């Protein structure tokens, strides 16, 4: 067996590899960039070497420094994880040439599958069904257009060197082809330094079905069944599961056999994934599943396969790399229950999924879920690497049970102040169409409105925030489930949630005076007692005094032109039997007064305007 292992990666996958290596008694060595020095994977490894600065090109992609670190620390093997150098055949060769064990695919297999066009040619030769399309060397726009016309629209233009959902354009009609080809090539040149493309028929009702394969150095290849990764956003996986919904035994046998054939065709050793695209318009059928590409490494979503087979795929990788035979024969592998994984990302679904970075003051996951994460509470999400915070992995006896567990896990995830897609994941996993197994790669786009949480706090959030402001609610982190507004409120409390003020019916009087964050259904809401600047409504800068809620003006304490000082009471509103004073945001004078006592005003009404002296 390997005695010491350097992990040429970071974050959750580095931790994942360390966990298994440690269980097998293998000494672990982390390499890291300077900004990652305090990350859990660095601490958890037996030794760590800083190999450069934050940009991957200066650290995680520096082959020379990684090899030097292996020499210095006496490592006997290198595991590349996924991403970074994991599918770099030159690096694999350099590792082997340095006399180290490469815990990855053979360089020749990586090369054979590295470019999508060459890989497809190879698969055609091996008798594996591939997506119909054009793979030729003639890359002139005219020829590509003619091929696309012949295939029939919609088609997909794919950069042969593409990956990670980049370098792909769907073309719906002939007229769009030239422009989309040009933009695909620009992206491919920038991201992969290669402008070669192929054209594929765009499969309708597309489902992403992939098969986990494993080979050893003794000529054995097995599969560990399929995964369904159809739930995608912009061609990137969001929720993965195993097995695939609606896969019958005959179809499974056909696709898994095709995967084994594909792996054998490139003399595969180690963990690999054969990705297929399926036309799911009439369920999964063996004659409607085509090879798409092979990923010659461990996959992000490998845990769902571990969950249904009871195998540790990193252990398999280490044993195979050390020259041992595969731990199990094909006939000893079986599917148990159903597993799902969701990728928790640092991004904001409400703002078009913009990435969110910053400290992780709160990072909490519910019990009973496998959480593979590279960060911890008190850490941070930096802008340099992948925005994935964690993978939530659940297992159930049935698909329905797994989906319910996944939805609950996402709902009970608490992250602050970094924004996440937790609520989005919870809604997706609980969506009736998802629960029914009606998944294809268009699911998220189709159901986007149901999945993206509203920007404003719900009544449940407001009620919960108000409850938390009561004297007993001292905990700054508040997680609530199924909170209901009391039916017979005796009073109201003003509460500021996410920067705006709301009135909430309350069974008891408010009295607590502390800011906190409320977690409900995967969302996080900062709350606290309302402050003067919030009560004044509009932003401090413009001096607009807006009604923070619908109500009645019960007192006007100012006159036009009057001088006022910051914090001075200007008007009193009454709503839901509670009075609220609106105060001056800064020193100035009353430039406008728009209401009189007794006026009923809707929320957001301009009541008055304060101007500074100079105006
Ligand atoms: P990458 O290297 O970026 O992973 P893939 O070739 O694996 O690229 O494709 C990524 C995703 O794009 C697939 O999971 C699928 O959702 C979609 N896709 C790829 N090829 C097709 C196709 N021919 N028809 C429909 N969708 C496709
Ligand atoms: P972690 O270790 O992930 O922070 P713990 O379950 O150990 O999570 O909780 C740490 C503290 O956070 C607890 O002592 C408790 O005060 C608070 N906390 C955790 N979960 C909740 C929740 N659902 N609601 C309110 N407070 C919570
Ligand atoms: Mg792919």
From TrEMBL:
Domain ATP-grasp: 120-322
Keyword Secreted recorded: no
Every Lipoyl-binding domain range: 533-611
Keyword ATP-binding: yes
Keywords, in A-Z order: ATP-binding, Biotin, Ligase, Nucleotide-binding
Domain (Biotin carboxylation) ranges: 1-449
PROSITE patterns: ATP_GRASP, BC, BIOTIN, BIOTINYL_LIPOYL, CPSASE_2
Domain of life: Bacteria
InterPro entries per record: ATP-grasp, BC-like_N, Biotin_BS, Biotin_carboxylase_complex, Biotin_carboxylation_dom, Biotin_COase_C, Biotin_lipoyl, CPAse_ATP-bd
Entry cofactors: biotin
Matches recorded under PANTHER family: CARBOXYLASE:PYRUVATE/ACETYL-COA/PROPIONYL-COA CARBOXYLASE, METHYLCROTONOYL-COA CARBOXYLASE SUBUNIT ALPHA, MITOCHONDRIAL-RELATED
Protein name (record): Biotin carboxylase N-terminal domain-containing protein
Native source organism of the sequence: Sphingomonas kyungheensis
